[in-house]
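Take a sample.
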Amino acid sequence: MTFTIYPAIDLKGGRVVRLAEGDMARATIYGDDPAAQAAAFAEAGATALHVVDLDAAFAGSSVNGDAVERIVAAFPGKVQMGGGIRSRAALDAWLARGVHRVVLGTAALADPNFVVSAAKANPGRIVVAVDAKGGMVATRGWAEISTVPVAELAKRFEGVGIAAVLFTDVGRDGMLKGVNLEATLALAQSVSIPVLASGGVAGPQDIDDLRVHMKDGIEGVIVGRAIYDGRLDLGDALRRAA
């Protein structure tokens, strides 16, 4: 098992952005060429990439299809894609565009049967996003907070072919406060599905802290703002992960 670093490209109107605490009104633009950013990550040594269609996550429909296709063409590794994917047609469309793994978030709570059937039809290619505010699952671009604990939701998808659970502490996302190691580890130890950490990575120490828990089921981490702001060198992070 290898600890995987997923540099993130969040798309809003075809641009590369990062949000603070999932707030679309607090978006920082980092570039107008997502494909060039993907190529740069590949040049640094990344073999996996995490892409989020923010427009689809909040509005339920995508305007970033062309940008995603360019990213897939520019990145020789595996692309993981999420954001507003709530139907089998949308899921199949992204897979057809060359996306390796599809991330399902809101659908996991709203339509679990869809997630289970998708996982069984595409074993190892579906990731369930379990996003948390105060320990409870947040949905629809993190705009709505449920009464379902994160571990309870994740356990519903054990044994159906899910590739990983992506856990994000929404209150830390884009804030450079440091990853919520305690909550991430607790989730990883409570489920049999590998867990990806996300939200708040601030620097090299977060990579080191997460990597030592591979044996507990933490298989990788999504990193965004820390790379864009220069707090974390991607090449160094990849060497630490290896």
Q: What stands out?
A: The chain has a mean pLDDT of 90. The first helix runs from residue 34 to 43. The first strand starts at residue 4 and ends at 12.
